[in-house]
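Worked problem 6 (solution included).
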Amino acid sequence: MFLGVLGGLGLLFAVTLAAWLGFRLSSVEVKSALAYFQQGHPESEESDDAIFAASFNPPHLGHILMLRAIAARHPKGQIYAAIGINKKKKYSVSPEERQMILNRCFQKDPALKNCKAVIVDGFIWRFGQHLADAKSQNATSIKLYRGIRTWGKDGPDERKLHLQNLLGPLLLSGRQPPLTRYITAPDPLGTGWDTSLGDAAVLASVSSSAVREKIKAGESIQGLVPVEAEKPSSNSIRLGCNRLKGRLTQLMAATNVECAVLIELFSQLHTGKY
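Solution. The predicted structure is:
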């Protein structure tokens, strides 16, 4: 008798969960970036914080457009450009360099004054929970945004990630998941696009993988990435020099080797004197 009741409750829970997941997946908001600039935003969301999660490897103009759209919808909130990382992976552009490039873009663009780049190691939804807890808010008050070229191209993969962001908070923390929204690139053949926001054809096709392929082939990436990201090599050199300087300091302390000359050289490289 008891097992039968338990089994019935388990079945009811599974059916309810499946129905709820189906509703959340089918009712997710998918809008073009153009709509964010044309339609304005609800006053009730002006002060809500938002997370735009991506690899930003490297940051490109499509990312900047999406962030501008989110900032327009949440002008009084804090927008976090969350750089998702996996410590087991090696990146051609380090997370720290991506963070630096993005924050420089935000400092120079008035439309992105409420944006901040952060490095997130772990689940993005958990980062959202930490933000909500810091403000004593419900986790659903933090909006999670994802940028896609079109739902047809990126939708299937995004559904898997959305499912993870729905189930993760429920099963691992027993809390409501954040509200996820998708922003699509502008339609190159559509009308009403403000060309001051960028070339619609470029924004509809640009991706981090395409930028990396161009870099690998030695081709120009001008017009695909922010100016701050066009010459990542100089930033990489300075970051590398900084790390090497620290390693040399450790070596000198451990072996009493006279490395002062080399340390001074890398200090000058790091500050741009050479």
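Discussion: Residues 232-241, 268-274 have pLDDT under 50 and may be disordered.
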